[in-house]
Amino acid sequence: MIVNGPRKIVDSNKTQILLTAQKLFSEKGYRNTSIRDIADRVGTNCSMINYHFKTKENLYIEIIENLWPSLDYISSDTETNANVLLKDFVFKSIEEAFNNTQLIKLCLETKIFPVSEKTDSIIKKMTEKHFSHFKILAEKAKYSHIKFLYTSIFALTIDIVSQNAKSVYTSKDSRNGLEELLRYVETTFLVQ
User: Phosphoprotein: present as a keyword of the record (predicted)?
Assistant: First the structure.
């Protein structure tokens, strides 16, 4: 049992570093956040962060990868209406954006101020995978102008999520914003 003790402490430290760095990167940006800032906020030293992640970029990459929702759930259910599957995918994606505003902020910052080719590549792959799933479902549902539809829905989502992140909303108000957006997307975009 003693063998598991130190491992749990190490995992707990790594988790605390990830959560703190995620918050600081989201608040201050990648370039304006130093390893020292993260270490000071966690209450550890820089060598502990370097032990777990080697570089600030690796820490950033792990945060982005951990925040991104799983996109591997596309249903192969041929019994369910394709429109229902598309709506489910869009709604889950929008809810994920509302629940992970930090991911939106990190990805937007990375697009404006690239961190590195590696981070750009990861975000590009995530975006391409998300669009690919959307496209498969939209084609099954017989939608046209799929790229336009996708861009319209998710640009609007990003704009509203970004506005909400800047505002001082209570969680109830934020949830109402989500419900309004879902209704708008359903009645404006997901109709044929």
Answer: no
pLDDT tens for 65-113 read 877 665 555 555 666 788 888 998 899 888 888 877 777 778 788 878 8
pTM over 0.70: yes
Same domain, 99 and 28: no
Same-domain pairing of 85 and 172 = yes
| The predicted structure's pLDDT at residue 154 | 87
- 181 shares its domain with 121: yes
pLDDT (tens digit per residue) in 56-71:
999 998 888 877 665 5
**Domain range holding 95?**
68-188
Number of compact structural domains in the chain: 2
Q: At what angle do helices 56-67 and 4-28 cross, to 10 degrees?
A: 90
161, 127: one domain: yes
- Any idea what the CATH number is for the domain that residue 36 is in? 1.10.10.60
